[in-house]
Structure to design on (300 residues):
């Protein structure tokens, strides 16, 4: 394993971020009707960790792939994620006023424009793969489109959100908790690592293990998110803390308590380290290990 400094890992992370931000800015260059594009830009170009597209790019790089080939798909994934946040924040779902330290889209514009901005971002995401990724083969594009469609809808994100809403205020249920987050958070993380490997041309057994890495990392991300909701302030989070408890959401602290949730997180982090040890030799795993630490130690 090649030894690099933490500064190198952080620099690579920031390089990915710069490429993503530049692509998104171009993708969302203002058009008519202006109010729609302004709402879309508000929902996307407001900072954020960009962990999902960074993860896709880094998995591709670690797999020996071309980052230019991966960038449109990485940004398609971020557009999907931002669409989901805009709709999640609506009064009919989570009713949040703040996101990433500023007004949510429905507060800055209107509820109807927030719905339409989310709809537009969802469609625009798939166009990044079909129209702006010429270096990908038609077969690769079809596989990416199919996987992203399922992950962002009835085999992932939307299913998890339905469970999250339907079982609010339900009795604590460990199996249901994992099912919610396997869809709501895990689906896009699994797509990010699988897609990065696919674009790089990795064989199916490696893609399966990369999906497992994404699944574990997504679960760790969600556990940290749940802990932050009960432990962090609004200034740190950039959104309203305590909302999960107030809305009766099925969270890890609600089901297990804070101390046991912290132990579960440690177990998932250990599993990620073990999996990356297995992948070392097939991939350059150092930066993927750095991303594990980034998720574990994040404060917002």
């Amino acid at each position: 394993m090649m030894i690099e400094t933490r500064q190198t890992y952080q620099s690579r992370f920031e390089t990915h971020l710069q490429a993503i931000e530049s692509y998104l800015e171009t993708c969302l260059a203002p058009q008519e009707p202006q109010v729609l594009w302004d709402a879309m830009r508000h929902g996307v170009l407001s900072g954020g960790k960009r962990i999902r597209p960074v993860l896709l790019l880094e998995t591709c790089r670690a797999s020996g792939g071309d980052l230019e080939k991966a960038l449109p798909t990485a940004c398609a994934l971020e557009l999907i994620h931002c669409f989901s946040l805009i709709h999640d924040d609506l009064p009919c779902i989570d009713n949040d006023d703040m996101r990433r330290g500023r007004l949510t889209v429905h507060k800055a514009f209107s509820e109807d424009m927030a719905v339409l901005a989310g709809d537009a971002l969802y469609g625009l995401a798939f166009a990044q793969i079909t129209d702006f990724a010429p270096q990908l083969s038609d077969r690769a594009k079809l596989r990416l489109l199919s996987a992203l469609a399922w992950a962002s809808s009835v085999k992932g994100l939307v299913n998890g959100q339905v469970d999250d809403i339907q079982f609010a205020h339900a009795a604590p249920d460990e199996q249901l908790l994992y099912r919610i987050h396997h869809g709501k958070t895990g689906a896009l993380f699994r797509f990010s690592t699988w897609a990065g490997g696919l674009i790089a041309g990795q064989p199916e057994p490696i893609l399966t293990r990369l999906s497992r890495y994404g699944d574990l990392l997504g679960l760790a991300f969600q556990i940290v998110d749940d802990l932050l909701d009960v432990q962090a302030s609004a200034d740190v989070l950039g959104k309203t803390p305590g909302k999960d408890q107030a809305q009766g959401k099925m969270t890890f602290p609600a089901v297990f308590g804070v101390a046991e949730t912290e132990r579960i997180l440690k177990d998932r982090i250990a599993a990620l380290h073990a999996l990356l040890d297995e992948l070392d030799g097939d991939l350059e795993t150092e930066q993927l290990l750095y991303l594990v630490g980034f998720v574990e130690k994040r404060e917002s």
